[in-house]
Structure formats: structure tokens, C-alpha cells
Amino acid sequence: MKDETMGQEDAAQDAEACAEALESLDRISLDDVAFDDSSVDVQDEPEIEAQPDDQDAGDVEPAEDEAGHEDTESEADNQPESDTGEETVLLDSLPAEDSLTRELPGLGSAPAVDETIAMGDIPLPSVPSAREAEVRHRKMSPKRRNLMVAGVVAVALVAGGAGYAAWNGYQQEQAAAVAANAHTMMSVQIGVHAAGLDCSTGSKIPVQVSGQDADGSSVSETLYVDEHGRGIKLLPGDYTLSIAASPIAADGTIYTVPTTKTQVTVKSDGQDLSAQAAFKLKVPSADTVTDDQIDAAAKYAEEGGASSAAAAKVLQQAATARRDAAVNAVSAQKAQASRDADARHKATDLYQLDIPVEWYGKVATWQNGSTLCIYLGDDANTPLVTLVAVREGESFTPDEGDTVLGAANLGNGYTVYASGPVYPYVVPQTINGRTQNPVSTYPMDTAIELVELTTGNRYTYSQIKNVLVGKDGKADAATKLEADYLAQILLPSIKAQD
Which pTM value belongs to this model? Predict the structure, then answer.
């Protein structure tokens, strides 16, 4: 209604301005209006100047025009008078300024042909040529000129008022459209990644939204999105987005909440903001999830992330059960590791050590005083390494067939020597389950296991046999291979006894 009232007021103002213009133009004298005569055709100027001053320009006509007029007059004389007795007005008897004859474009110097078409009993006047129109313009009375100018001004004012009204209406429509959009909720999509989350069976992801809409109103609310980042609806404006808490997957998985915050601008419906606002929710070790994390996730699930408060409670129980089970499993693993460590830990009267983890469960030990032997499985006749403590200054000689593979100084006047067979050299010489060395004979599966244990599975049996050692007696290379491995996994654990 306000827009219609404004349009009526504008139209009234335009009409009043037009009337004032017409009144003012009636008061304009001929002397006040200056006309530019420069538009007169230069070719016509000599003819006008050649006329006597006391002769009207309209009295001088080309010869062809006079002939045409005479023919017309003769024809007019032969016309019968009308039955009504009214006098028929001929073309030439009309005032020059009332003629409608015009020169047709493109005819050049061809004579103009006047045709009189009767309208009732009154023939139509001819259209003046361009030259005649110019001459008549010079003879036009001031009042008539004023009226013509006033007409032009009036038309311009009316056209201008109509154009202004149309433009004003368009602007109002645009403003109304913008205002309507500013109060229309726009759906937007953000980027989220939460492995294993299905919001149809778990809870949705709570997103904290704060900022200002297009009206300047402050916004602070929690909205929820699914695993695809869909579900947010906002008015156009500028906002800051962050993840408020973890969702809860159907199996009770709780996610690590990212601390990042992202600023976005909502402009249109269906806007994809995944490039600007992307959040990755990682899955932590279940045993590290706290009660506070579960409670926060359950709170948001109940407030809108789940289909109901009952569904949110079920998800909370699943999260708690999953966390408790993980904690118990870790505790059991730690207890077992402690037992294993105790089982791997060996001690003599002079030193202590830990059996390598890689060997644990595959070897056994025997000890005698400060001597400790580590052998394969239940076969005490297949030692991997024998450890002997020797006082400083005393020499050490290994058993027959063994090689010194390393030593550890205890720092208390004793050194522990590690010796044993060089299996990477002896075993690869096995052919069909037997060796060329008459001292030892091993089945093939035992031979492979001995090579793996003494090299830490860094090389396969075939690599050691065909490449690293072979059958050509490269004992030094095989010795170094085993010695290096023992120096890494066994000797560092040998310490003096407390």
C-alpha cells in the first residue's frame, strides 16, 4: 500500500509540472525563443537570398510545381459542386502551412505528385516538401511556435514521468526480492569425515554456529549434520562453524573432536561450503575415551542428534561398554606383558638379562653358576648362544664348533662373552636335511628356523644360502651377519647383578 501511494504522488507531481511548463511557454515571446537556422540546406540559401525583400518566400515556386498546380486547378474547376451546397476546398486554396505534401525519400529531383483523397466531401491536404516546410517554419507565428515547443516539453515530461515510475517500480521489486531472500532460510552443506559413522543408526554431528545474519541479528545455536555434512539451514549472513562434540556411532565409537573453527558466508540456497568448512573426526583408541567425552556426546545426541532421548541413552550405553571393554583388554595385555617380561628376564649370580622378544616362546634356557645357555625349543643340544662371565685379565675359549659372537663388559671386573654356532654359515650347507659338517645334522624346518632366529628374519634361507654365504666357505660374512644381530637384540640387555 505504501508503494502505491508513492506512485500516485509521483504521477500527480509530474502532471503539475507539465501544466506549469505549458503555462510558462504561452508567455514566451518570439524574441525570447532563439531558433537555429544553421540546419537550412546550404544549397537552398542562394535562392532565398535572390528573392526580393517585399516578396514572400512562399510565392516563389519552381516551374514544374506551378504547372502541377495549374493542372490541379483546372481539374478542380471541372468538379461538380456537392449536393449539400458546401464549398469543396481545393488543395491549392489551403494555407501553405496546412499542406501535408512531403517529398518521398529516394526520388531525387522527380516531381512530387499530390494525390487528394476525399474524406466525405473534404479532400485531404497535401504534405509539404522539406523546402516548403522550412520556409513555412520561418513564417510561423510566435504563438504557434510556443505551442509546438510546449507540446514537445509536455511529451518529454510525461515520458520522463512514466520512465521514472517504471524504474522506481523495478527498483522496488528488486529491493523486495532481496528483502525476501534475507528472510529465507538457506540450506548449506559442509565437509565432514567420520570413519564408520552412519547417522541413521548413530547420532548426528553437532555443529556450533555463531555469527550475524543479513539483518544484523546475532546468531548462536547448535545445528546437526549427517555423515555427508547436510542438515544446516541459516539465513544469509556471516558465521563461524565448529564441532561442538562427538557423535556416537551405533557400535559406541566416540570420535576426537577437532578444535578448528571456520568462517563462512551464506548467500544462496543449496550452497556447498565443503571447500571452506571441512572437519575430520578421528577415531582414538577406545581405552583412552573419557567419561566426559561420552557424557558430552550423549547430551547433544539427546538434544537433537538422535531420534529420541531413549535412542540417545542406548548410544551412550554402547559407548560406555565399548570403552570399558577396551580398557579391560589393555589391562589384560599389560598384565600378560608383565608376566612375559618376568619370564624373559633371567639372572645369574653375576649378571641379568632379558631374552629377546623375537625369541620368546621359541627358546628355553639352562644355567650353571654364571653360565647361561639359550637353546632352541626343547632341544638342549641345539644352543643358539651360550653366555659365560670371565674375570678381567682371564682368557676365554669357546666350545668346539662355536665362535665368539660378542661380549658385554659388566663394569664390575667381569666380561660376559656370547658364543655359539654360526648358523647362517652352517645351516645353508644342509642338503636333503643333512649338512656337510659331520658335527651337526638338522632337519630342513629346523635349519630354516635357526637361520631366522639368528638373523632376525632379515634374510630368507634362500638368500643366505645362495647369495650372502653360499657353499664356498664364506664363514666371515656369515659370522658378521649373526654377530650384528646379537649385538642389537641381546647384548644391550646384559647388566651387572644388583
Answer: 0.53
